[in-house]
Design brief:
The structure is a single chain. With about 500 residues, the chain is α/β, with parallel strands linked by helices. Strands 8-9-7-10-11 form a five-stranded mixed β-sheet, covered by helices on one side. A three-stranded antiparallel β-sheet has the order 1-2-3. It starts with a strand and ends with a helix.
Length: about 500
């Protein structure tokens, strides 16, 4: 069996130092890749491949061992496959493949979004493509992986390009509650996913974090959480008013009682193929209704479904449910079903983000307010009440077929870490744009006219300011045209 986990690294000083080194090495990676694939050095991803074989010669009756690959990069599709290949080679021939694998990894180039990378792997070749920011218009935010080696057929891996983790098989049991699940993820509500196996558990949590693409899920999430995790006591504390914004994936039945005070639970049955469900009349009756429950009843609920104390703000979208279920009846390929779901979530999230982007654009100062001899103007502060008021004229309720209380949903989102993450990124982008416009304005200025009658201290101050702006632009990667740099250097020389 296989699965993926996410481990906090901030506890140990040695890990902090390593994280700092990694952050510098991959300084340009996050700036060039899509939000869901960005690296957070506070966390490691662990990809585990577990094997258990009956063996009468062992006291416990079984040979069991895991091979675990650790990385800062959230490339779930790629590292799930790589771990399976390396683990199977290890189980076949012993430790030598692990040593060879480490030497192979040392030869890998840094990951560059937007470029096709060729990676040596145990005598075979892996081709990896990580989408870049210019790929924003695409439905898929996952990396693509192709393994070119005939030997991998012996371990049950496909020879052709492997698709990203399928959204359709993972979310099909939750089809009737997709609108509610999307809202819980969007607003970073505390959610616990209870599943029968680590593989199903981690796949579901990972899938949930991607359904708000192109928005990045910046709250915490743990694809596979156990009673041995270091913050177990904090997570199971009965203080429901202090729950963190996190998605927890668990399999231990102990959590039924330990997390009974959590307001949102997603319970999964053993994984069944959609074809099997369709043959039995579609979605199970006990999974087709949104269930609201008081916290004291959560521990007694064992049927699959979404249990929440939060009332959804938007109505259920019957159209996507019908399209997916019809696809099951027609035996439509899982890849096509997953693409339909990704397109649905992408359009829904984009519809939600458009009013925010429009409001933020209105906070930008006008170009005519930019003066070459004054500091660049700042972006106006984000006012929640003003934004909510603007929804009457430009809210999604005017164009979206999905009806509901959009204003309340925005108020919840504006209090969540996902909004903070979005706003910080967009604010930084807008501020960088203003700095660029200011430097272009300064480069085009008639510096000789400005110099007339200025005291020496003012001239020295201008030289220091221009030099400071040039070094800052180089340090932050500001895309300053060469012509602008030459003109600014010319101003310094002239002064």
């Amino acid at each position: 069996s296989s699965g993926a986990g996410r481990i906090g690294t901030a506890a140990a000083g040695q890990q902090k130092t390593a994280a700092s080194t990694v952050a510098k090495s991959y300084a340009n990676y996050n700036a060039r890749c899509l939000p869901p694939l960005q690296m957070d050095t506070n966390f490691l991803f662990g990809f585990a491949y577990f094997r258990q074989v009956k063996d009468a010669s062992i006291r416990r009756g079984y040979y069991q061992k895991s091979v675990i690959l650790l990385t800062y990069l959230p490339l779930v599709s790629a590292f799930t496959q790589l771990t399976a290949i390396v683990a199977n080679k290890f189980f076949e021939t012993g430790d030598l493949p692990l040593e060879i694998f480490c030497h192979d990894v040392d030869r890998w180039p840094h990951p560059v979004p937007g470029q096709h990378l060729t990676l040596p792997l145990l005598g075979s070749v892996v081709e990896l493509y990580i989408p870049s920011l210019s790929s924003r218009h695409t439905d898929n935010s996952n990396e693509t992986v192709t393994v070119n080696d005939s030997t991998i057929s012996s371990i049950g891996l496909p020879l052709h390009q492997a698709p990203p983790p399928d959204l359709f098989p993972t979310l099909y049991p939750l089809l009737e509650q997709l609108h509610c699940v999307w809202e819980l993820v969007l607003t970073a509500e505390p959610v616990v996913v209870l599943a029968p196996s680590p593989a199903q558990c981690s796949a579901t949590v990972q899938a949930l974090t991607t359904i708000i693409h192109p928005l990045r899920y910046v709250a915490d999430y743990r694809p596979f959480y156990t009673i041995h995790d270091s913050d177990f006591k904090e997570m199971t504390s009965s203080n429901s008013s202090a729950l963190p914004s996190i998605i927890l994936g668990v399999t231990n039945p102990f959590f039924n009682k330990a997390l009974q005070h959590w307001p949102n639970q997603i319970r999964l049955a053993a994984a069944s193929s959609p074809d099997h469900l369709a043959a039995n009349g579609g979605l199970a009756k006990n999974a087709s209704k949104l269930k609201r429950s008081t916290s004291t009843k959560f521990q007694n609920e064992s049927k699959p479904g979404v249990y929440t104390q939060v009332k959804p703000n938007l109505e259920r979208d019957r159209d996507i449910i019908k399209r997916i279920f019809k696809g099951v009846q027609l035996k439509r390929p899982a890849e096509v079903q997953s693409a339909l779901l990704r397109r649905y979530f992408l359009e829904l999230t984009q519809t939600f983000l458009i009013p925010l982007e429009r409001y933020l654009a209105g906070l930008m100062p006008l170009a005519r307010t930019i003066s070459p001899y004054r500091a660049p103007p700042k972006v106006k502060p984000f006012n929640v009440d003003d934004f909510i008021s603007s929804l009457d004229q430009s809210g999604p309720q005017l164009t979206s077929r999905i009806k509901g209380d959009w204003a309340s949903l925005y108020r919840k989102f504006l209090k969540s870490p996902n909004f903070v993450g979005w706003y910080n990124i967009r604010h930084a982008e807008v501020s960088k744009k203003l700095s660029l416009l200011h430097l272009e304005s300064l480069a085009e200025a008639k510096i000789e006219i400005w110099m007339e009658g200025k005291a020496e201290v003012e001239l020295v101050d201008m030289v220091l300011r221009i030099r400071g702006k040039l070094s800052e632009s180089a340090r932050t990667g500001l895309p300053l045209p060469d012509l602008v740099k030459e003109r600014l250097q010319g101003h310094v020389t002239r002064i």
